[in-house]
Structure prediction request, 305 residues.
Amino acid sequence: MLRQRTLKQTVSTVGIGLHSGKKVSMTLRPASSNTGIVFRRVDMSPPTLVELHPERVGETMLCTALIQNEAKVATVEHLLSALAGLGIDNLYVDLDAAEVPIMDGSAGPFLYLLLSAGIEELKAPKRFIRIKKPIGAQRGDGWAKLLPFDGFKASFEIDFSHPAVNATAQSLEINFSCQGYASEIARARTFGFMRDVEMLRSRNLGLGGSLENAIVLDEFRVLNQDGLRYADEFIRHKILDAIGDLYTLGHGIIGAYQGYKSGHAINNLLARELLLQQDAWEMVTLADEQKAQVIFVDDYAFASV
Ligand SMILES: [Zn+2]
Prediction:
């Protein structure tokens, strides 16, 4: 039986918030079976919990933000993506500010941090959401779907009319039973356009954004001196985001995700739609031999990343 996972020990890191530009400390602590992923705002008195659920997603403009009562935790998607990649079910995420640190704009530093803590298997069986019927969400000309599939794969298509993005592949499919999350997706960074920077700063957003934690493009080219980490890093990051956004459901998915010009808002609509369409999916547990299809990163494979 494939079992639930948490961390072996507590680990901490410090970074800056993408929006606030301020220092944020984050501590990840092991949690028992069926706790789920629980954020704690330890700067609030008393410390305030923010639980993971698609209906707690309160903002999706530039990141995915969870809001519960007075407590908000923004930019959760890259950490959630790394947690999905490692199949971690239960964890406390303690933060002393209203956002998860942006690190280098990818999920790579989170993956490294989680693996450095070690992964602990718990007694309770791990539960997956198995898609039985197609589910879709649409907004404007973008859409996202979940379809039945024996494993997990994600395909995405973007349509940016920008010379530097046009030069890269704008569609991609990754089948995680044979392609690893750590090597194919985790290191892809978020990206932004110079023309948006002033607009964001005037709204007090993106104050921590820089060439250190994003791919930044002007009208013609990528401004980062070292260029891209993958030839098609933009679309890989969109898959990274979709995996993180769907992990607000708190369980891995057995099915196929398809996104066309999707983003945090449409991904959240899709997760909410899934919860409404109760005959379109079921909760399942899996035998060990099915593990390879659904766990994106084998713990021991990290040495090869
Ligand atoms: Zn992102």
The two ends are 27 Å apart (CA to CA). The chain has eight helices and 19 strands.
